[in-house]
Design goal:
Length: 81
């Protein structure tokens, strides 16, 4: 399992989105994920989370299935141990 996180643009701190199994990274992407506001415990704002962010996270996880977390920052995602 890897924790998918969104980087808070105000503080740079990670905001947990949820655990994802590396197996999920190999499933076809669905278009039913809509833009969501994720409440940030660091700055108090809602940050946008979209199917595009999820796709970036899954690509990073496909490339590094051993990662324990994936940090999404704007238009990029990094798999981390």
């Amino acid at each position: 399992m890897a924790m998918v996180q969104l980087k808070c643009p105000e503080t740079g701190e990670p905001v947990n989105i949820g655990d994802v199994s590396p197996d999920v990274a190999f499933l076809p992407m669905t278009a039913d994920m809509r833009l969501q506001g994720i409440p940030c415990p660091h700055c108090g704002e809602d940050h946008r989370w979209s199917s595009g962010h999820f796709a970036l996270a899954m690509e990073a996880l496909r490339n590094s299935p051993e990662a324990s977390r994936v940090l999404v920052d704007g238009g990029s995602a990094t798999a981390l141990s």
